[in-house]
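// run 5 | inverse folding | seed 20
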């Protein structure tokens, strides 16, 4: 992963927070991550509230938690967070509108489109949401994940570890199932020192030795599973 790929969304999110704090009613700050077929499309904080959402296929409709009578008042919801992330990350998405449910179904994010057997899923705090993305209420600090082929995924990986490491000394990171904390063996964590990856053991742990100074952005991956969140490590 290129380090610069996270910089623009993070900076934009800070600016969005500064500009939106007064003008918007009851927004919440969540982390939005979008895992496409071959890459992480977006990962950054987003300030979100209920709003109208417009897509090429579906048109413009309210997406604010009142959809389908799910909530009595306008609240922040995942699909609104996706729309805000698209503006911050400068990518596009598309979704169909189903009037009977008052709900969008996301069909494409950036270059990754659904197929006859692979679909976009929405998770909050590593669990698939039980209602639509215009109905599920978000709270401050929630982890919002749009994952391609989510319904066939074996695991939703979570990567944890220190944000500070010392060059030449081993640093331990851990890969778990996001919802349960179950350790995941055989996941690859990297890139380390530019290109190599380190495999996790039966405890879900990987010992990484950095050999240069600066910032590293690590991700965990495993065939059949959804990539992890990023872990930013400063090497001293």
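// decoded
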């Amino acid at each position: 992963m290129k380090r610069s790929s996270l910089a623009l969304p993070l900076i934009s999110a800070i600016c969005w927070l500064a500009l939106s704090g007064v003008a918007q009613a009851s927004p919440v700050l969540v982390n939005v991550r979008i895992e496409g077929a071959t890459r992480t499309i977006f990962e950054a904080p987003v300030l979100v509230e209920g709003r109208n959402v417009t897509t090429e296929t579906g048109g413009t409709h309210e997406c604010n938690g009142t959809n389908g009578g799910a909530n009595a008042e306008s609240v922040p919801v995942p699909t609104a967070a996706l729309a805000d992330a698209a503006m911050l990350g400068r990518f596009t998405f598309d979704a169909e509108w189903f009037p009977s449910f008052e709900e969008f179904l996301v069909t494409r994010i950036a270059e990754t489109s659904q197929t006859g057997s692979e679909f976009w899923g929405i998770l909050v705090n590593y669990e698939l949401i039980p209602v639509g993305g215009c109905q599920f209420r978000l709270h401050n600090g929630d982890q919002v994940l749009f994952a391609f082929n989510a319904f066939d995924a074996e695991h939703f990986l979570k990567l944890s570890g220190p944000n500070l490491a010392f060059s030449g000394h081993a640093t331990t990171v851990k890969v778990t199932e996001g919802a349960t904390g179950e350790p995941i063996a055989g996941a690859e964590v990297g890139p380390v020192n530019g290109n190599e990856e380190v495999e996790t053991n039966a405890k879900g742990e990987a010992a990484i030795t950095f050999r240069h100074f600066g910032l590293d952005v690590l991700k965990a991956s495993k065939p059949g599973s959804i990539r992890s969140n990023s872990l930013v490590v400063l090497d001293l």
